[in-house]
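User: I'll paste a sequence; please echo it back and then give the predicted structure.

Assistant: Echoing your sequence first, then the prediction.
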Amino acid sequence: MLILMCDSFDATLPEKLSRFGEVTKDMERLPEAHVALIRSKTTADKAFIDKCKNLKLIIRGGVGLDNVDRAHAESKGVIVKNTPEASSIAVAELAFAMMTSASSRIVEAHNSMVAGKWLKKELTRTELFGKTLGLYGLGRIAREVAKRALVFGMDVVAFDPYLPDDVFASTGVRRAATREELFAQAQYLSLHTPLTDETRGMLNKKTLSEMKKGVVIVNTCRGKVIVEEDMKAALDEGQVGAYCTDVWYNDPPQNSPLLQSTKCLFSPHIGASTKENLLRIGEQIEQIVGLLAQNKL
């Protein structure tokens, strides 16, 4: 079995997988590969899949599968898996860190100090305590965010039409009946949804205008759930107080208007890139490859 590591994983993973076969990072050997391991950098589209004459398994180390043409893979008899349980804590901690950084103006404070300024009076912070946090989606990551928000004394409300009421009851999160109801209530909004036809561009001029003035929006799901030009305009007008994002239209972003805004907090798609999470992803990949090796997939 030839296992091709297309993207970066924990450094110990090749040795762990070597008991199942040969492990390589040489992309020239893609046509020979039986297993392809990817993260967000590699897109396993039709062209990618068609090059792999021996491919049996694609594993996406992470939550989403929107960079995999799953239908085409399965039509070729290729199994597609991901590691959805691994990344919850890592991404939730980044989302919450962004939210606390925005409310406490950490970046502005740090940059002003480095510039030799003392903006003690100018930098007024805002507390999270007592504020309403809206969660778009209540999957694994959002539930971890909710746990932290509730401890901080926030009122947490979520919209997720695909989950039953008992999931909301078990987390202590109020249920919003509609997306519009969620947007109208949230002072902080954290996005946790896959990119689908329904969610693509859902934060646009119209929906942003219906939110509370000064809302802080945190995006650790997918860049294309927002319309960048509309978000930039809403930031300039003060309708959105801050936009914090780890995700982009492209990695790295190309000519994004958001990069010109002083009301944003950015990171380079590092939500899942904790040491601990890379180990967890590796453990789940090892289990999946092991099942393939035993003909149990």
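The radius of gyration is 21 Å. DSSP finds eleven helices and twelve strands in the chain.
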